[in-house]
Write a structure and sequence with these properties.
By secondary structure, this protein is α/β, with parallel strands linked by helices. The chain has three domains: 334 residues, no CATH class; 187 residues, Anaerobic Ribonucleotide-triphosphate Reductase Large Chain; 168 residues, no CATH class. It contains 29 helices and 26 strands. The strands form eight sheets. Strands 6, 7, 8, 9, 10, 13, 14, 15, 18 and 19 form a ten-stranded mixed sheet that branches. The chain has a three-stranded mixed sheet with strand order 2-1-3. The longest helix has 29 residues. The radius of gyration is 29 Å and the shape is globular. It starts with a strand and ends in an 11-residue tail after the last strand. This is Vitamin B12-dependent ribonucleotide reductase. It comes from Planotetraspora thailandica. GO terms for molecular function: cobalamin binding; cobalt ion binding; nucleotide binding; ribonucleoside-diphosphate reductase activity, thioredoxin disulfide as acceptor. Catalyzes the reduction of ribonucleotides to deoxyribonucleotides. May function to provide a pool of deoxyribonucleotide precursors for DNA repair during oxygen limitation and/or for immediate growth after restoration of oxygen.
Length: 952
Amino acid sequence: MTEIVNGTVSGTGGRGGKRPRKGLKMKRIFTTPGVHPYDEVRWERRDVVMTNWRDGSVNFEQHGVEFPEFWSVNAANIVTTKYFRGAVGTPQREWSLKQLVDRVVGVYTKTGVENGYFASPEDAEIFDHELKHSLIHQIFSFNSPVWFNVGTLSPQQVSACFILAVDDTMEAILDWYKEEGVIFKGGSGSGINLSRIRSSKELLSSGGTASGPVSFMRGADASAGTIKSGGATRRAAKMVVLDVDHPDIEEFIETKAREEDKIRALRDAGFDMDLGGKDIVSVQYQNANNSVRVSDEFMHVVEAGGKFGLRARLTGEVIEEVDGRGLFRKMAQAAWECADPGLQYDDTINDWHTCPETGRITASNPCSEYLHLDNSSCNLASINLLKFLRDDDTFDVPNFVKLTELIITAMDISITFADFPTEKIGETTRAYRQLGIGYANLGALLMATGHAYDSDGGRAIAGAITSLMTGTSYRRSAELAAIVGPYDGYERNAEPHKRVMRKHAAANDDLRTLDAMDKAIHAEATQQWQECLKLGERHGYRNAQASLLAPTGTIGLMMDCDTTGIEPDLALVKFKKLVGGGSMQIVNQTIPRALRRLGYQEEQVEAIVEFIAEHGHVVDAPGLRTEHYEVFDCAMGERAIAPMGHVRMMAAAQPFLSGAISKTVNLPESATVDDIEQVYMQGWKLGLKALAVYRDNCKVGQPLSAAKKATEEVEAEAETPAVQVIEVPRPTRRRMPNQRPSLTTRFTVGGAKGYMTASSYPDDGVGEVFLKMSKQGSTLAGVMDAFSVAISIGLQYGVPLDTYVQKFVNMRFEPAGLTDDPDVRMAQSVMDYIFRRLALDYLPYEERAALGIFSAAERTLQARGEDPAALQEVVDTAALAQSAPIEDKPAEGKPAAASPAPARAELELIPSLESHAGRTADAPLCMTCGTKMRPAGSCYVCEGCGSTSGCS
């Protein structure tokens, strides 16, 4: 009789043997027999009050919610507002984490019992208790759709990732629009490959010319922009893929870059080009991520040089040849301009495909981590790695293995009861049972153990953990196949599936370990892969896919993770929400642990942490050795991780993942097109499946095409034999009149108080700004005086205010944080606040909208789906009223008296320092709460309320 005991198979059975005993024999991991996991936790009641960051009003309020005392305020707030079901204020409203976990886990346990997953009621109870313990202790989390839907009257949708398909018929294209709309309406995203659609260079059966896939993208883009995602104002999450040999590939590559040029031109012409603006609808293709599916054949042509053939969709014949390097250059140039397209490496993806006999992998979900069959879906769960770091800085390998078994069992059960948005997706997912286990907090784990993210040691740990996770997952999948059978499509794909398992195991054998931690993890991973191959050969596998690395946006916040997915830490200093409201700035709590691990004494640790709190980086920190700087490198800031450091970390994990990795490789603003080409080429050589890049400020900087045109003009002039002397007129200064209207604003940024007086010409805009933030005679006061004079003279010499706003908004330094201004609730520095306030007071709505600066009232109107431009007079009056008290109007014909300002020496205008805040600076504002979002994999997440722009 076959029996599954703690994940091992004993006895006889299998195909041709005796009938196996049905059910897993579960063993406890964290729980105690006879004690409910809830009884081992100290619970506390809290009040969750979410303030609208736009106008200070309360937009959510629930009192007396119950959470474990160790849960942060932010995690409790997000779960209460996002995942508790029932109308607020009614008895049906959930008010405790216990109720939420009971609702979800109850369905999993009940379904497992009904479908023979457990050997006995006692085993089902152990499964139930272990899941509940792990969830309330933030050891792992299911993806958001599970928390939204499971155990409610809604459809039991558990998947966050979807892949669709479209054929070369009008009926299929219209079905694509409909299916995509249904998925968007439910708050999820999807991806699709359009390469089956004939190009605009091919003929129709009627004799006419085909429209081509790019034209049909317009309809899908308009649909996504209208439906958006879940009825919210943020854009829908979608991915569009086109094969590199499609005849319309050049048009596809340049599509979004060309539209970015249109946005700039229309904005400069005075049109409302904000995301919610009335004129933005004229801009197309903005609701999707675009990726080119490149083949090994194409990449070899790029390496060697030569022609590459573009093929007709119906016949496969080459209808045009293009220069391979030139086409690759166009991809990199477009990505330099607007971050699209990304690349997906087709041959690598399909070489690791477990089900090629069913069909090729042609597309991915919006964040590029789920790659499998068309018309399929994947549900996700992520492990909090920092929970397995023991006090002695060793990794808890045995419990990590046991938890992985538990999660895979639960995820497979979920497919049994799950509902799906379309019947085709439901059929494929039930037949292939794709799972997506992953992890979060890798960056924090590496820092806490004294490993640099961009180091051989850091990559060895990441590779070993990923290998252990996937090997254990497939081993458990083989055990499940022995009990409830392999997936329906396994028999026809048995040989390729087993081949991919051997590839994973071979990659594990090639993994190079460096120290005790990764050696211990790798030793267990080797054992798991050996057992996986043996059981898979005997029983097959329950799941066609097991693992990937998702962005873990909302659920990462739910688990109080310092870092998301495979990402490094974003910054060394963060803001922590406090009970009762407000927030405080804290140094990342993994830093003291890392310093102790590196051998620093307690007094040294305190001095270094104090330095980091003040400066935000470790450069020149007292007593910190320079060889340890790299341990504290982050995604941005003083010591940002190099772009290839991100690529190498992805390459360390990729051989041990069924799917891919949701991650964007950040490049500095100074990066060139050559740099992006190098990243794309190395991504292919290192065996990645998908890769996206983002050059800092690429969506607000000068486009490459314009720079190129300017260069060409200069070169043309250089070739002209005649020397021409051009008189350049000097700018003239327009001085302020002796009496001029002014506006004084008192402000607070991160606890630091200050005053700003802005004087304007009686007829035309601001011309003078003075700032005061410290006592007269202090260094800070002197610096602010000098800065004020420089800005004032620049304004009087004709430098447009919006130019200063573009340069100083998003500049990051301390003090930063909460302000007392309802229009600008968070500021990254005093300069960030000042120029946002000046923009609100003196720039017209159209210019502010292009810069992403809105008043509280305007954001409220956007959230309601209304046009903010229609109420500009009201909004501007309100903004002025918030900045200064309303005073009596001066007598008719007499100008208003200016606020007295101390005499200051005039200084020459000097170049201002520009902020390089990168992808965070370009991140959208959360339309739920108004907070600037931060990167999470290929998506964005709001730390204020947990909203995401993609997978969660």
